[in-house]
Amino acid sequence: MNAATTAGGLKKTSGWSMVWGLLMIICGLVAIALPRVSSVEIVIILSWVLLIVGVWHLIFAFQAHGGGSIIWQILLAMLYGAAGLYMSLHPLLSVVSLTLVLAIFLTLEGVLEIILYFALRGVRHAGWILVDGIVTLILGILIWKQWPSSSTWVIGTLVGISLIFSGISRFLLASSAPSPKPIA
User: Fold this and answer.
1) pLDDT of residue 181
2) For the chain, domain boundaries
3) Is 90 helix (H, G, I), strand (E, B) or coil?
4) pLDDT tens per residue, range 24-43
């Protein structure tokens, strides 16, 4: 394999990464523009993921050795399957539930990051942990205080923002890939 082939392949791959980045940005904008629809769609996708994981645990149960392992895998399969089935049958209620879980998670994460700051406050740039903790705590509290009405926009909006930033970083990283140089 010569350098031109490798550089050409890298440039071709980076071209696809740029396209993927643009698609992620577009999907992020759509998710933010239609937060209720995107929240429900995210829950539906998550429900299918849980159902598939449940099936895999059931398959692993038949390959497990020992009664305890088999029972454990079957219990996990039932748990994942029940959660996935419930979410697919009740997507709007699942959006409300996931929003509450997200609010609790962000609130607790914010508190833990603030505590971590006090443990690391002598370390250079530890202030960013405090800033992150405060912002996360405020976000969690805001979502929680507006719950359940925040359920209509939180999940879709946050996933949309994440998609936009992931798309931008992918696009910019791909655009910085070196161009193939002709061999003299």
Assistant:
1) 61
2) 9-175
3) coil
4) 999 999 999 999 999 999 99
